Each structure stands twice: as structure tokens, then as C-alpha cells.
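=== RUN LOG ===
request id: a7f3
mode: sequence -> structure
chains: 1
length: 156
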Amino acid sequence: MADLSQITNFIEVAETLGTAGQPKAEQFADIKKAGYDTVINLAMPGEKALPEEGTLVSREGMVYVHIPVKWDAPQKADFDLFAKVLQANDGRRVFAHCVANMRVSAFTFLYRIIHQGIDPAEAKKTMQQIWNPHGVWEELVDEILRDHGIDYFDID
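=== RESULT ===
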């Protein structure tokens, strides 16, 4: 397996899910060598993104999905689409990234709790390796969790 530790903020969340900040062009070959089948990019175009990322990913034989999420205005629909892509790739290894692994870690935190039944405290510890959401992100996370009967501020 390839070593992905050189990719900004890389975390192997589970056997089938890795998250990170923006990989460099040459790191997509390592992502493929590490066994990933699908790459999800949550960064907006122009945010340190590689304009040719879809082509780079496809050349490595992986599926590329771009879900542009506005940093200052994330939406529940963005998370819902992220969750649907993960569900559609069940059983495959997915590498999800944004600029610094903040958007992805928040969405992954939500996905693990809502769709995989992971203990919220465990999922929160993984997210906190990257950050503690604040502002619009904290509001979005709390809103989505409340929709599922969970209070974000009660998770220790």
C-alpha cells in the first residue's frame, strides 16, 4: 500500500474511507495504489483546486465526483449528496477531500453517526483531529443532527 501521510491532514477514517486536504497532482497515483476506487472533492473551483483533477483521477482508473461546497454557506443538500455518493459506493474504498479536510471531516462526522450508527463521541474525536466546527459549520452540523434527534452540544 502507498503511504498517504504526506497528503495534507490525511486520516484513514475506516478501511473504506480516507479523508484529507487537497492532494497534489502526483499524489493521485498514490491514492490509487492505496486501493481507493472513488475520489470525492468538496472544494469549490479555484480554492487551491487542481483544474484538471477529474482527468488526473480518471487516468488512474478511479471515479471522480465533485460536490462544490461553499465554505461560508454549506447546505443540507450538500451533505445529502455527499451521503448518497458514499452510499452508492458502499463496499468500495472512497477518498474524500476538500482544501484542508474541514468540510470533509464535518460531513464524514455526520455520515458516520446518521448512516453508519457510529457512536457520536467516537465520530467527534475523529473530526476533532482536524477541527471543531464553528460559525455556519457548527450551525449546519447541529441542524442536521437535530433532524435525527441528536444535540451536537451534548456529544462529549
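=== NOTES ===
The beta strands are 11-14, 17-20, 38-41, 63-66, 94-97.
The first helix runs from residue 27 to 33.
=== END ===
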